[in-house]
Amino acid sequence: MADLLTVQGLETRFRTREGMVHAVNGVSFALREGETLGIVGESGCGKSVSVLSMLRLIPTPPGKVVAGSAIYQGKDLLKMTDEEIRQIRGSQISMVFQDPMTSFNPVLTIGRQVAEPLEIHQGYNRAMAYERAAEMLNMVGIPRAKERLGDYPHQFSGGMRQRVMIAMALICTPQILIADEPTTALDVTIQAQIVELVKRLRDELGMAIIWITHDLGIIAGLADRVNVMYGGYIIEEAPVKELYTNPQHPYTIGLLNSLPRMDETDHRRLASIDGLPPVLLEKPGYCPFAPRCHLAVERCWNENPSLLRVGDQHTTACWVDPGTGRERQ
Amino acid sequence: MTSPEVLLRVDRLVKHFPITRGILIQRQIGAVHAVDDVSFVIYKGETLGLVGESGCGKSTTGRTILQLYRPTSGSVFFEGRDLAKLSGEELRKTRRRMQMIFQDPYASLNPRMTVGEIIGEPMLIHNTYSGKARQERVEYLLKMVGLSPAFANRYPHEFSGGQRQRIGVARALALEPSLIVCDEPISALDVSIQAQVVNLLEDLQRELGLTYLFIAHDLSMVRHISNRVAVMYLGIIAELADRLELYENPLHPYTQALLSAVPIPDPIAEEKRQRIILQGDVPSPVNPPSGCRFRTRCPIAQAICAEVKPEFREVKPHHWVACHMV
C-alpha cells in the first residue's frame, strides 16, 4: 500500500521556566492508506506532541517545531500557509481528543458543532449540514439523533460525548483520523463500545488511523503497526504481532512484562522498570533509556542509537540484542 | 483447613447522599444511592479487590468503612467493634488501626509540609512517637517504602508521582495499621511505575501482615493483587468470589461483560476474543432501576428482574452472586 503521510525528522521544543524541553527529537514514520498505526508511550514521551506538531497545533510560544517535514499529498504540512493547513484539518485529517468534556464548546449545540466542518469545508448550507450531522450521529450510535441536535454537550454522558466527537471528526470523510487517547477518560465497558465503533467505521469508510495511547492492551486488538516512543524518540517500530511476540527494545520488553496478564494463573511478581522517565531538559548524547536499562553496555552511554533494522519491517533503537545481552553486530 | 480470621465485616451497609433544594431552608428532594445494602467480610492478611466503573460506589464503600462518611444504615465491624456506633475518642483510637492510600498523589500530600512532617503527623496526632524517636521512625518508614531517609526534609513537589505515592504509603504505615484501604492507588501513575508500587504493596503485606481493601477499575491489576474480588455496579455488589474463580467462571452477566471488555496486551488472543458489548450507559444513582440494578443493560433480563431485587446469595462455596438468572 502507498504511503499516505510521511513524517521525517520531526523535532519540537518547548521553552519553559526550567529551560528548553526537548519534547520530540527527530521522529520519522509513515502512515499507509487504510492502516491503523498505534503510537504507544508513557506520559511525556512525546506521542501527542508529535502529531500535534505535524498538524501545526502546537501553541507558539512556548512550543516550536524546529525541524522536520510531514508530507501529505505531495505537500509539506509544516510549510503550508495557515489557510492551506486549515483546509486540511478537520476535512482530510481530523482529530479526536482525550477529554470529551473540554474539547467541545459548551455554549454551542451539538448539531452546530458537528455540522460546522461541512459548512466550512464543503460549502453545505445550514439545513443540509444539519441533516447530514443527524445521519452521522445516527451512524455513531446516538439514539434519536435528529432530536438531539439541539442539545448541549453537558446533556450527554462521557461515552456519548466521545461518540459525538467521532461524528464531528468523520463528517467530512477524512483520509486520516488521529485519535489521541480517545478512551482514556472512559470506563472499560464504554471503552469497548468506542473501540468497536471506530473499527466498524474504519472498515466502512476506509480511512487510516493514528491511535495514540499508553495502553498496550487496546493497541493489541486495534493496530496494524505500532511505534513505541520514549523520551521524545521512536525506540521501536514493528507490525503488531511481531512487536508483542518478539519485542526487541529493553523498554518495550519491560513494559510488556510489567503488565499483569488476564490469563496468568500463578502469582508472579511484576517485572518493574526501575527508575524514572527522563527529564527532557537536554538532548542526551547517550541512549535515553540507558539510565533505566539493565542491559546497557558502554556504547549505550557514548552514542544514542538510531533505529536499526532487526527484521522484516521491524526496527529498534538499541545497541544490544536482548536475546544474547551482547552488542548487536 | 481452619476458617480464616475475619478482620472486617460489613453488614448491610447503606450510604445515601441527600440532594437538597433551597438556600435558607434546605429541603431534601432526593438522594444519591451511592451504596445500597452491601455486605461482605475481609479476612485477616488477605487482599480483597473491589472493582467497578466510575460512580458505582466503590470509593464510597471504602470511605464509609473508615467512617470518613458516616453510614446511613448498616454496620461495619472492625476487630470486633461496630464502627458505625463509635464516636469521638473511641473512634479516633480505632482509626489508628485502619488507614487509607489515596488515588491522586499530587492532591493528597500537603505542599507546605516536608515529607518528614507528612509522615510524622499521624504519630504526632496520636501521640505514639515523639521527638527523636519520631524522626527515627520517619527515616525507617522512608527506607521501608524504598526512598532515601534524606528525603525527609524535602517537599512533595520535588518528587515524581510514583515517589509521592510511596510517601503516601509511608504515611499510611506510620501508625502500624492492620487494614489499609487502597483507593485506586496506581491509576494516576505511568505504566512502568505502576508495577513498582504494586510490588511494594505486596512486599509490605508479606512483611507486616497487612490486610488490603484494594479499590480499582483496572481489572487485570486487581486480578493480579487480590485473593478475592468483589464486583460493584450502581451501589450494589453484583458478584464476589475467589480471584481465579471470578475471572475464569464469572456468573453475573455484568461481570461477564466487564471482563470481556478488558483489552489483553496480546494481538493473537485479541483476534480470537468475543466481546460482549453492553448497550447504553450506567443509569443515574439518584433514581436506580427497580428490581435488579443491572436489568436496563442486561442482555438476558426477564420480567422478574424488574420486579424483584435479586438476593446476594452463595451459589457455590465462596462464590456469591446477585442475579435471578444464575
Assembly classification: heterodimer
Mind describing the biggest β-sheet of chain A? Answer: 8 strands, mixed
Give the end-to-end Cα distance of chain A, rounded to a whole number of Å. 31 Å
CATH class of the domain at 6-45 and 60-86 and 220-321 in chain B: Alpha Beta
Please compute the radius of gyration of chain A using only Cα atoms: 21 Å
CATH fold name of the domain at 6-45 and 60-86 and 220-321 in chain B: Rossmann fold
Largest interface: A-B, 45 and 45 residues
Can you offer a commentary on this structure?
The complex is a heterodimer of chains A (329) and B (326). Chain A has 329 residues and is an alpha/beta fold. Chain A has a domain at 1-87 and 216-262 and 269-329: P-loop containing nucleotide triphosphate hydrolases (Rossmann fold). Chain A has helices spanning 47-54, 82-88, 110-122, 126-139, 145-148, 158-170, 188-205, 216-220, 240-245, 250-258, 298-302, and strands spanning 3-16, 19-32, 36-40, 63-72, 75-76, 93-96, 176-180, 208-213, 225-230, 233-239, 308-311, 314-316, 320-321, 326-327. In chain A, the strands form 3 sheets. In chain A, strands 6-7-8-3-9-10-12-11 form an 8-stranded mixed β-sheet, sandwiched between helices. Chain A has a 4-stranded antiparallel β-sheet with strand order 2-1-4-5. Chain A has a two-stranded antiparallel sheet with strand order 13-14. In chain A, a hairpin with a 2-residue loop joins strand 1 and strand 2. The two termini of chain A are 31 Å apart. Chain B is α/β, with parallel strands linked by helices and 326 residues long. Chain B starts with 5 loop residues before the first strand and ends in a 5-residue tail after the last strand. Chain B has an 8-stranded mixed β-sheet, with helices on both faces. In chain B, strands 2-1-4-5 form a 4-stranded antiparallel β-sheet. Chain B has a domain at 6-45 and 60-86 and 220-321: Rossmann fold, CATH 3.40.50. Chain B has helices at residues 58-65, 88-95, 115-125, 131-144, 161-173, 191-208, 219-225, 243-248, 253-261, 267-272, 303-307, and strands at residues 6-21, 27-43, 47-51, 73-78, 81-82, 98-101, 179-183, 211-216, 228-233, 236-242, 313-316, 319-321. At the A-B interface, helix 7, helix 8, helix 9 and helix 10 of A face helix 6, helix 7, helix 9 and helix 10 of B.
